[in-house]
Amino acid sequence: MLDLILPLECGGCGAPSTRWCATCAGELVARAAEPRLVTPRLDPGVPVFSLGRYAAARRQAIVAVKERGRADLIGPLAGALHLGLSRLLGWGLLGTPLTVVPAPTRWLAARRRGGDPVTRVAVEAVRAPGLAGVTVVQALRLTGFARDSVGLSSADRQRNLADRVRVIRPVSGAALIVDDVVTTGATACESVRALQTAGVPVHAVLALADA
């Protein structure tokens, strides 16, 4: 009866009567060699890692959180990010202390979504056991007028964000920028530039997905 009133479906494949099915959970878990190094069209000057391609269940979960308010999917995405962070630390590619800095989002978009989903995913990922010495600081903000980047070319995305990313909170030690999707690399470039200009060493960028 409850399913008839408030239909429940998997955020990855749409299967009924579950918020997140076992099949989609398996797709979201990073494989043995992931996070993998990717090369966005715009080079931010630091390594860029991705947990997987922006497709299938991974894509659906990210879209559902950002555009449909599926806060219940923050947990699965945070679990994937936690594993990715653990592996980068375990492989010796990152060290502690480490500050995770969520990539900035447009203020209007964050307000419409009831908060910044990337920050919520990062906070939950770091809160889980096993990441001692890792903290999250929402240190970046988009200032001025920045258009939605959907449909923009690499050059247009770069111009859209040029000098619009600002550091609004202090960051101690080395930083890792976390984003939901890396496409052209424009957001990563401006985020790295802003932090480095503020004297913050940025060691890498980690994305939930790459397109």
From TrEMBL:
The terms under GO molecular function for this entry are: glycosyltransferase activity
Entry keyword set: Glycosyltransferase, Transferase
Into which family does the record put it? Belongs to the ComF/GntX family.
Q: What is this protein called?
A: ComF family protein
Q: Does the keyword Isomerase apply?
A: no
Organism field? Mycolicibacterium diernhoferi
Report the InterPro entries cross-referenced here: ComF/GntX_DNA_util-trans (IPR051910), PRTase-like (IPR029057), PRTase_dom (IPR000836)
Q: Which domain of life is it from?
A: Bacteria
Matches recorded under SUPFAM superfamilies: PRTase-like
Record-linked PANTHER family = DNA UTILIZATION PROTEIN YHGH (PTHR47505)
